[in-house]
């Protein structure tokens, strides 16, 4: 199982990747949605951890594209956005798991179980 991390903050992406490697996962990082959509090889057992506030194509738009795949991977969204904006995302993407930054590896692993 691969864990695809789409996060424009390099420090956050790296910290997530290192923590997940320590838990025997195979993380792959992408700096933006465009790179992810162009390069990712997805399987239904994979996870995608995606920042909602990406530059260029938004995390919300990437999630919509993922959800339309024949066998989509599981998705976990992360955000540092204020509560009012978060509520807008929740309405646009029902059933989406969203975690607020700052993150901990415990938050991530709990959400993925």
UniProtKB/TrEMBL annotation:
The UniProt record lists the keyword Iron: no
Modified residues (4-aspartylphosphate): 51
Pfam family, one: Response_reg
Domain Response regulatory: 2-113
SUPFAM superfamilies for this protein: CheY-like
Keyword terms, alphabetized: Phosphoprotein, Transcription, Transcription regulation
Iron listed as a keyword: no
PANTHER family named in the record: RESPONSE REGULATORY DOMAIN-CONTAINING PROTEIN (PTHR44591:SF3), STRESS RESPONSE REGULATOR PROTEIN 1 (PTHR44591)
Protein name: Response regulator
Organism whose genome encodes this protein: Roseibium salinum
